[in-house]
Amino acid sequence: MPKLPAPPLPKVLQPRPKRPGERNGDASAPIEAGITVVDWLDERTSLSPGIRWLLFRKVPRGINWAYTLGSATLFAFLSQAVTGVFLAMYYRPDPSGGAYESVRYLTDDVFLGGFVRGMHKWGASVMIILIFLHMGRVFFYGAYKYPRELTWIIGVTLLILTLAMGFTGYLLPFDQRSYWATIVGVNINGTGPLIGPFLSDFLRAGPEFGANTLSRFYAIHMMLIPGLIIALIGAHLYLVTKLGISAPPWLKVDHEPDVVPREEV
Amino acid sequence: MPGAFEGETVTRRRFMNLTAQGAGLVAVATFTLPALGFALAPVFHQSPYQWQPIGPPSDFPETTYQTKVIVLVPGIGEAGKSIAYVRSRNPAIDTEPEDKYNKWVALSSRCMHLGCPVRYVVAAQRFICPCHGGVYDFRGMVAGGPPVRPLDRFYTRLNESTGQVELGPRYSVNSELARFAPRDPGQPLDGIGQYLYPSRFSTASKPTG
């Protein structure tokens, strides 16, 4: 079986051949410097084949905008991560009034605070919507089938973790809505037979909504689940790159691909 | 591959591997197991309760409820407070056996559907939940809607030295008003319910004193 050719670099990234009479130190020096830096890094890391493998890969004919929903979800997650880190600079998980006051302060008094918090708050809903649309695309296109089952399973885990992010983040503003929604949510969780009551105690850090519930939710929201999500996104992307993108289900194969050239005798 | 010497079952290379991996496992367990126990501890730690005074006996008639603000979790301000509806026991309607802990009937305002706060409506003599329409009658028994059991109660007692009615730990009841260790809302206690939703380590089952 002949070896398939490596995916070609696009024109802009190919090294430009030297013009006759061109030397170091003339007008092209900045460009040369950039190439030198990239070469220096690449010689030591050998990253460029990996980046080429990740970014410049073949995609099937007939793909459409629905195939961008996964990237859109990833972008929503990155937006949540960045805005979340900066919100954490002002937020105080203090149930005796400090949490609500810190959210009020960062929303009303901090420069662009309302904007950054708004990005995080509305971005959370956007991420949930996008992840469900992405799931719908994969489901209705049959893209979960062999050999992509593991990609699907990781994706469903990511969906559950994203919902858990929504649940834990909802408490953090610590207003009436947050408080009672969390009470109801934890009690729904407690209706699971046998282990439900103990799971509720774990979530609340005790039998009642108490002093440690808020900090527990905060730690889960900004440390535990984001770490898991990042790791699983990495695995998800690796599998997507490794297995390639599935063709749309309506695309018909009109002839057997000529991997082995046919010879007429 | 046999051992280096006659009769050896583990090669030196394999022994080295197992030792190094075992040491690594011990090192990882050294920080993961305590961290896990640290996070799970509240499930097994029994929360303390305190008897809190809620007023003299003359405050509480038999025919209507007094609203009392109580502290469920001290030290966290408003978030740790709740409301109890309290009245004197009325033998004409309170058919559950009397003992020293229920001379005053103290109902928790926590709805037994999913934990929203119920409100006592005097004109209807009913407790109404704003969230999903749970309704309880004057004794706190389910009169309609999704709640799975009557309203929780608190142990009450009279403190002889101060002359104050005191409110103690919470307990849950089934539809015959039999007492159970406190359960979370949404967990039925009739029939198989008490076994599907066992009592937890984190709550006191009976008051002392």
Q: pLDDT below 50 for ≥5 consecutive residues: which ranges of chain B? A: none
Assembly category: heterodimer
Kindly provide the radius of gyration of chain A, computed on alpha-carbon positions and rounded to a whole number of angstroms: 25 Å
Question: What is the tally of helical segments of chain B?
Answer: 2
The CATH architecture of the largest domain in chain B comes to: 3-layer Sandwich
- Rg of chain B, rounded, reads 26 Å
The secondary structure category of chain B is: alpha+beta
The topology string of helices and strands of chain A comes to HHHHHHHHH
Account of the 3D structure:
The complex is a heterodimer of chains A (265) and B (209). Chain A is mainly alpha-helical. Chain A has a domain of 179 residues: Cytochrome Bc1 Complex, Chain C (Up-down Bundle), CATH 1.20.810. Chain A is 61% helix and 0% strand. The relative contact order of chain A is 0.11. The model of chain A has no long low-confidence stretch (mean pLDDT 90). Chain B has two helices and eleven strands. In chain B, the strands form two sheets. In chain B, strands 1, 2, 3, 4, 9, 10 and 11 form a seven-stranded antiparallel β-sheet that branches. In chain B, strands 5-6-7-8 form a four-stranded antiparallel β-sheet, with no helix packed on it. In chain B, a hairpin with a 4-residue loop joins strand 5 and strand 6. Chain B is of the alpha+beta class. The radius of gyration of chain B is 26 Å and the shape is elongated. Chain B has two domains: 45 residues, no CATH class; 137 residues, Rieske Iron-sulfur Protein (3-layer Sandwich). The chains are: A mainly alpha (265), B alpha+beta (209). Chains A and B meet through helix 7 and helix 8 of A and helix 1 of B.
Concise structural overview:
The complex is a heterodimer of chains A (265) and B (209). Chain A has 265 residues and is mainly α.
